[in-house]
Design goal:
28% of the residues lie in helices and 23% in strands. It is of the alpha/beta class. The chain folds into two domains: 93 residues, Roll (Urease, subunit C, domain 1), CATH 2.30.40.10; 285 residues, TIM Barrel.
Length: 412
């Protein structure tokens, strides 16, 4: 049996505990065992000697959770695979990720979901099952079977379910199975537009209300959509929503090459300001990456010809910390909630996204004092297509612990 671990002298921040204090975090047998901090003491110290990891001045947080990644496995592994995707996640401080189903073949059967679950590398990598067979928008997948196989949600990401009657039936099946719907909101008649995003979001908010489904809206980028979500929440709708760092960092004037091409696309400066306001007021519940690797040939071919999608696992926390916390838009505790506690709540997993005693020993440690420049050549991901290349940020990952195992360490 491995020794217990003590992460010492770091600033432990956990909004679920109301904790922000310098102290020691003890991990044992894959769980959080104890915390000893200024004015705060919970749990029992592990028996025997602990491996002590000194982290003076660093942030010690619950492991980050990304609700939206594309690991391209199976079928597109020249872009990313399970091993490289999990390594990139660990290097970014992520201990849980949710993998979208638009692989080849699509994750539309229990067998495909179970096979992918068995291949997770170090971190907690959760498949998302497709809503319809082959993502063709017609025949529904077996939601209950997908959940039993390990799916954490259902999604048609990369496209919307165009037929409202099919989507309503899917939502009812998801609600019965106890799975959330992770919804790509884009009207095929208005592709890539703010109006198209908002129209589909509004439609699916109504369908979720009718069906009782737990609806999570993916990669929200437009003020029009945020207005719909804000009104729905005020009316008591069961809805959560995410955005991605590129949507609160860049606007459409920045879209110079393929590294800035994604779907939804970058929007106006007004939309960027609206995303930041929605992060501040709780309209947006989570920051996800929509990590979507492609080969160099697929991205370095000019903006018009480049495929949609940029990577984000190894830049999400530093970009978010620098652009939101250091910029004065939100407090640190809010960022931790957006990237850890709230995603865990959306997944219905109370043992993650927290450092409470008995929770899974999922921890991320960051250096937020020393700035550095983002260098895509240092990434663990196979992808290099990032709009953040060369940006000076704070928040380098020092240590990632998943289930009590050190899966990334860079503390020299």
């Amino acid at each position: 049996m491995s020794k217990a671990v003590c992460i010492a002298r770091g600033r432990i921040v956990d909004p679920t505990l109301g904790l922000d204090a310098v102290g020691e975090l003890y991990l044992s047998q894959g769980r959080v065992a104890a915390i000893r901090a200024e004015g705060y003491a919970v749990g029992e110290l592990p028996a025997g000697e602990s491996d002590r990891i000194e982290a003076p001045g660093a942030l010690v947080l619950p492991g980050l959770i990304d609700l939206h990644v594309h690991f391209r496995d199976p079928g597109l592994t020249y872009k990313e695979d399970m091993e490289s995707g999990c390594a990139a996640a660990a290097a970014g401080g992520f201990t849980t990720v949710c993998m979208m189903p638009n692989t080849k073949p699509v994750l539309d059967t229990a067998e495909a979901v179970a096979a992918l679950c068995a291949r997770a590398e170090g971190i907690n990598a959760l498949p998302i099952g497709a809503i319809t067979m082959g993502q063709q928008g017609r025949a529904l997948t077996d939601a209950a079977a997908l959940k039993r196989a390990g799916a954490c949600a259902l999604s048609e990401d990369g496209r919307s379910v165009a037929d409202a009657s099919v989507m309503l039936e899917a939502m009812r099946a998801a609600a019965e199975a106890g799975l959330p719907i992770f919804d790509h909101t884009e009207d095929d008649a208005l592709p890539g537009t703010a109006a198209g995003e908002a129209c589909m979001a509004a439609r699916d908010l109504v369908l979720a209300r009718e069906s009782g489904a737990a609806l999570h809206l993916c990669h929200i980028s437009a003020k029009l959509s945020l207005d719909c979500i804000r009104a729905a929440k005020a009316a008591g709708y069961s809805v959560t929503a995410e955005t991605a760092p590129h949507y609160f960092t860049f606007d459409e004037t920045c879209a110079a090459d393929g590294n800035f091409k994604m779907n939804p696309p970058l929007r106006t400066a007004e939309d960027v300001a609206a995303v930041i306001r929605a992060i501040q007021d709780g309209t947006l519940d989570a920051i996800a990456t929509d990590h979507a690797p492609h080969s160099a040939e697929e991205k370095q071919c000019g903006y018009e010809r480049a495929l949609n999608g940029v990577i984000g696992l190894e830049t999400s926390f530093p970009v978010s910390y620098t652009g939101l916390v250091r910029a004065g838009h939100i407090p640190l505790s809010r960022l931790v909630a957006l990237m850890s506690a709230n995603p865990a709540r959306i997944l219905g997993d109370p043992k993650r996204g927290t450092l409470a005693v008995g929770a899974y020993a999922d921890v991320a440690v960051f250096d937020v004092e020393r700035p550095y420049r983002i260098d895509p050549e240092s990434f663990r991901s196979k992808g290099r297509s990032t709009p953040f290349a060369g940006m000076e940020v704070c928040g380098k990952t020092l240590l990632t612990v998943a289930g009590g195992r050190i899966v990334y360490r860079n503390m020299e």
